[in-house]
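To whoever is on call:

I kicked off a structure prediction for a single chain this morning and the downstream step that reads the tokens threw a length-mismatch warning. I double-checked the sequence; it's 173 residues and nothing unusual in it as far as I can see. Pasting both halves so you can look.
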Amino acid sequence: MLIMSHKSWSYLPVNTWWMRPFSFINKKQEVDIKEQYNRFKVRGFDLTVRFNNKNQLLLCNNRTDYKYDSEQLLNDLSWIDSRTDCYVRVTLEDNKNKDRFIEFCKMLESNFKHIKFFGGCDYYNEPIYYFEHFPNYVESNFTTKSSAKSHNSILKSTFKDKDILILSFVNYV
């Protein structure tokens, strides 16, 4: 079983000042992608996106947008692709811009040949795009560090029959 980080890019700062007081609610990771991979042996990443009114790609989680541009994301994905042993789940945060999301998913598949993409669903798990891979996974969604600290290692030993275990706060395994 491999470990996947839930909301992998949520370690980033929020994009709007008015979300700062609430950013702890949507934060599921404390370290960047490279540290998740190198230090905590994460081999799966969770990418949640939406498109704004200008059709620009935004990294997000529950309506919280993160300070990150598409070039930085492409650099991260290139780095992940060069590892050759990773999965990335791709989710559309809302039901808007489904055509743009399909284009985005096709671009990911054509440009990052070593990443095993899966998901392609909206936030309610309704399929929008069908990727080749569909691993057997279980997902935890602990909202606090203390919950993750006390439960992540239990989950890891309990769900050994799954391909992927998706965890919040991977630094507490």
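Update from on-call: the warning came from a stale cache, not from the record. Cleared it. Sanity check on the structure: The mean pLDDT is 90.
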